Amino acid sequence: MKRIISLFLLICLTFTVFTACSSAPPDNPKEPSQKDETQNPEKGTEHMLNGKKIIFIGNSYIFWGKTVLQSSARTQAERQNDQGYFYQLCKKMGAEVEVTNWTFSGHGVGRIFSDMCSLCSYDHKSYLEDRYYDYVVVSPGAESNFDKTMPMVMDFFKQANPNVKFILMGTACAYGYNSTYGDAYCYQKDLFADFEDQGILIADWGGLMDGIVKGEYTVPNATQTYSVNSFIVKDGKHGTMLTGYLQSMLVYCLITGESATSLPYDFCMDTSIREEFDADAFVSKNTSSSYRTNFVEIFNSEADMAGIQQLVDWALENKPYRNH
Fold first, then answer.
1. What are the strands of the beta sheet with 201-203, ordered from one edge?
2. What fold, for 49-323?
């Protein structure tokens, strides 16, 4: 009898250790699992995002890395057919989506939804004549009262569609990667868990980047060395094109429930699709004699991209921002 009890306790201990370790970042890329209803759709089935309307709200934290493309246009009609990385990823996956780019350089979300923008001297929201969207992606800037701004934005869009879904970007600014403000806006990451409890999806690219840069997360089978420069350009705050793809991937996976594993990225440096995807021009503009980046080499490494995609899956499942 004692031997049976001892064997039972040993099995329980083994299960406990396995469970406790399951939340750690993965060491090696996993083989793609069999598809289920939450994974990449089979050919011949209509994609859940086909025909959906999505708006990205924010500033250069989004458009610098090509998630959406920088625009000087003012009206909704001029901005509602954005063809940045997020659109390209959806298209590659079989979804024709309408992406509205509501990002403005130097603007916090509060300015965009104020009655009179202090930078542009006009009311941005008055140009959003059609407020009906299926998904609203919000990226805060360097702003001190985002806990009050986000509910205001939600109310604005819920008036048109009570069932609209919201996605909140966790930016590099929320983790202190801001050459102008430093740690001043790190309070934002403390809001993520509460916002998630309200039904908001959290695309915490800043937290994932921070973990990789600090060595807390290891990119499995990496051939490249990762640093801040892999994700942030020489100005100390804006994202590289790799960051733009990371943002797009997180938002796509959050909305669809699909795995990041094997998502396409061949469009990211393809100038035949968009001239804005010229990586050489981007590097030339955003580097200096004292700054070098290796995001192009990372894009060109299948092993590194597979490892990053695995980390995305891990982060979406384990939600490390809830443990700050």
1. 98-103, 53-58, 135-138, 165-169, 201-203
2. Rossmann fold (3.40.50)
**Cα separation, 208 vs 206, whole angstroms:** 6
C-alpha distances in Å from residue 42, one per residue of 14, 133, 172, 192:
38, 26, 35, 33
What is the rounded distance in angstroms from the CA atom of residue 138 to the CA atom of residue 27? 32
User: Measured between alpha carbons, how far is 213 from 233 in angstroms, rounded to an integer?
Assistant: 14
Give the model confidence (pLDDT) of 273-283 as tens digits.
999 999 999 99
Predicted pLDDT of residue 13: 45
| CA distance linking residue 226 with residue 311, whole number of Å | 14
Query: Distance between the two ends of the chain, CA-based, in angstroms?
Result: 46
Give the C-alpha separation, 95 to 88, whole Å.
9
Q: Counting every residue, how long is the chain? A: 324
User: Domain boundaries in the chain?
Assistant: 49-323
Listed in sequence order, the residues at least 6 apart from 132 whose beta carbon sits closer than 8 Å to its beta carbon are 53, 160, 161
With 0-12 CB in 10 A as exposed, 13-18 as middle and 19+ as buried, what is 209? buried
Q: Is the pTM of this model over 0.90?
A: no
**Rounded Cα–Cα distance for residues 21 and 43 (Å):** 36
pLDDT on residue 8: 46
Token duo for residue 307: 């490892």
In degrees and rounded to multiples of 5, residue 53 shows phi and psi of -110, 130
pLDDT of residue 44: 60
Lookup: tokens for 194: 């509460």
pLDDT attached to residue 220: 97
Show the DSSP H helices in the chain as ranges.
Answer: 2-21, 60-63, 76-79, 85-92, 109-112, 146-158, 192-197, 205-213, 228-231, 241-256, 279-286, 295-299, 302-318
Task: Spell out, as residue ranges, where the chain has pLDDT lower than 50.
Answer: 2-5, 7-22, 28-38
